[in-house]
Design goal:
CATH class of one domain: Alpha Beta
CATH topology of one domain: Rossmann fold
Strand content: 15-25%
Shape: globular
Radius of gyration: 19 Å
Distance between the termini: 24 Å
Largest sheet: 6 strands, mixed
Low-confidence stretches: 1-57, 327-333
CATH architecture of one domain: 3-Layer(aba) Sandwich
CATH superfamily of one domain: von Willebrand factor, type A domain
Length: 333
């Protein structure tokens, strides 16, 4: 099972955030997210058994997590329960779904010397993540110290085999400085080769950067231009000289993910399960922007949700996207 999953693509044009839409959501974990009842799908455009959406438009796609006042996930919402605003202008929803489909996941794992005391817990969490993932998922590993590299064999860009993920994680011992920004940039570039349309990065680091060629504004722009959801886990100690939780939390918030700062390294396993449940319970909403210009500008997004049967709902999605200066080439089915 070390090869790539079977390809299912569809024809589309649009912004980097929109990109392909053939398979919108992920079943990421089978062990930690067997939910009660099947998610309901309601869509302005049809999603058939092959995960193919019957559209060929410039959709912007949002993945949204909705929680109730107790922090629980909310299911059963309808398209009309969501209101989308781009640059404060209301948008018309063209696609709506609450489905589980395969995903591409990149594990971006800090191998620098500052992570030496934490690395056992990090590897344990990452392996638990890989072993409990859906067999159809495709995964890859980016390791980094003062350099960043893809840790799977060169002939295997993605895998669904947990043993290959384990070997990739354990190939090097923690040493050296920290090139966090370079690692994230590498992972975002690699995601462009992914077979699946929902794409996630899980970044586990102490958040410090003292060796990258990329700068924070550049990495932030790359994340804003991508359709990746980024979750971050910061493992800090008071004596860490490069302690910088702000970067990790902001990166997660701007892409619709979530940032975690556990007090104990052993909490990483629980956090990875929490991330899995978050992804499995997301809604997918697509809209065609009123502003059709591809001028390379940043567009802010606000997503609101109201329901006659739920009070005090909170919703989380990405904060915005960069409108592509050029259309994305069409991809044949």
């Amino acid at each position: 099972m070390g090869g790539r999953a079977a390809k299912r693509r569809f024809r589309t044009t649009g912004t980097p955030l929109a990109a392909p839409l053939a398979q919108i959501l992920l079943m990421l974990f089978s062990t930690c997210a067997r939910l009660t009842g099947a998610p309901q799908q309601q869509a302005g455009d049809r999603l058939d058994a092959g995960f193919k959406i019957s559209v060929d438009v410039n959709l912007v796609v949002l993945h949204a997590t909705v929680r109730d006042k107790k922090g629980g996930f909310v299911s059963g919402l309808r398209s009309e329960d969501f209101q989308v605003y781009e640059d404060r202008i209301p948008q018309k929803t063209r696609f709506f779904s609450h489905e589980d489909v395969p995903v591409t996941v990149g594990l971006v794992v800090d191998h620098s010397g500052s992570m030496r005391s934490k690395f056992t817990d990090v590897v344990k969490a990452a392996l638990d993540f890989a072993r409990s993932s859906n067999p159809r998922d495709e995964m890859f590993v980016v390791s980094f110290n003062e350099h960043a590299w893809l840790s799977l064999p060169a002939a295997v860009p993605f895998t669904s085999n947990p043993l290959m993920v384990e070997a990739a994680l354990n190939r090097n011992v923690p040493t050296g400085r920290t090139a966090l920004y370079d690692a994230i940039a590498l992972a975002l570039r690699h995601l462009k080769q992914a077979d699946f349309d929902k794409r996630v990065l899980i970044v586990i680091s102490d958040g410090g950067d003292n060796a990258s060629h990329y700068k924070w504004p550049e990495v932030r722009a790359l994340a804003q231009a991508s359709n990746a959801i980024i979750y971050t886990v910061g493992l800090f100690e008071e004596e860490d000289p490069d302690w910088n939780p702000h970067v990790l939390k902001r990166l997660a918030a701007e892409t619709g993910g979530e940032g975690f700062l556990p007090r104990e390294n052993s909490a990483v396993v629980r956090i990875c399960h929490q991330i899995a449940r978050d992804i499995r319970n997301q809604y997918t909403i697509g809209y065609v922007p009123v502003n059709r210009r591809r001028d390379g500008t940043y567009r802010t997004i606000r997503l609101a949700v109201t329901s006659p049967v739920h009070a005090r709902l909170s919703v989380r999605t990405r904060a915005g996207y960069i409108a592509a200066a050029q259309p994305i080439p069409q991809v044949a089915p």
